[in-house]
Amino acid sequence: MADASSIAYDALKMAVEHVLDKIKEGKKLSTEDLFIIYLGTIVGDLREIKAEIARLDNKVDKTNQRIDDIVKTLSARIDDVVKTLSARIDETNRRIDDLAKSLTAQIGEVNKRIDAVQITLLEIQKLLIELVKTRLH
After folding, report:
1. SS3 sequence, 33-69?
2. What is d(CA 30, CA 43) in angstroms, rounded to the nearest whole number?
3. Which of 17, 20, 29, 90 could form a disulfide with 33 if both were Cys (CB 3.0 to 4.6 A apart)?
């Protein structure tokens, strides 16, 4: 079923053709005839404008789809990078924790050795004091 605008367009087209026939026959045109020719010109321009708008709408829709596709692709890539970086950060944190434990254990061992050296030095000091005391007596 035809819509109202196409029926009106067909009626105007028939009226314009009737006026064109009058022009071909050399008949005088009435004000209404001139108005019909003018309307025919405007309607033709409007149809071209509607077609251009439809073409631009289609182009905008395609551009929007491309933008949506790019956003999806970039979001997926960003998610991948975030996952990779998170895994690397977790691994680095684990290595730092392991290193801290190792260094803490080594520091503890060094502290024990320092304590042992201090005890040995104290014993040597005591022996030297006793040696000095025995030599003085």
Report:
1. HHHHHHHHHHHHHHHHHHHHHHHHHHHHHHHHHHHHH
2. 20
3. 29
- Answer yes or no: pTM beyond 0.85: no
| Under 8 Å between Cβ of 9 and 43 | yes
Print pLDDT tens along the chain (137 aa): 568 878 888 888 899 999 999 999 999 999 999 999 999 889 888 889 999 999 999 999 999 999 999 999 999 999 999 999 999 999 999 999 999 999 999 999 999 999 999 999 999 999 999 999 888 87
| Cβ density class 94-111: b for 16+ within 10 Å, e for less | eeeeeeeeeeeeeeeeee
Cα–Cα distance measured from residue 53 to residue 45, given in angstroms and rounded to the nearest whole number? 12
